[in-house]
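Can anyone check this?
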Amino acid sequence: MIKLKLIEHATTFAENKNIARKLKTDIIMPALKRNEEITLDFTGVGSSTQSFIHALISDALRKYGIDVLDKINFKGCNKTIKTLIKIVSEYMQDALEIEGSKEVRLKGEYKE
């Protein structure tokens, strides 16, 4: 399992989409391609933009579908981060028009 501590890349306010894209390209997508689980640890990140979260996880959802969330653990998420992850996951699911869609559930419901 890969653990990605976002505070080391995004500081306390995760807003830089270029950083999110780099993390996605260099770490997240290769791990998922190898069928590895990955933990996105938001401990210490106080807030984020929706565009940062979108840049971080939307390609994984687009490529692997909503079930990819079974491979992505979200840790250390405060209420704001949880809400943003859920919003991005839900609108990606809607955009992909997944047949037999199901309610977005995030593995571990944001492990603290």
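Reply from J.R.: I decoded it. The two ends are 17 Å apart (CA to CA).
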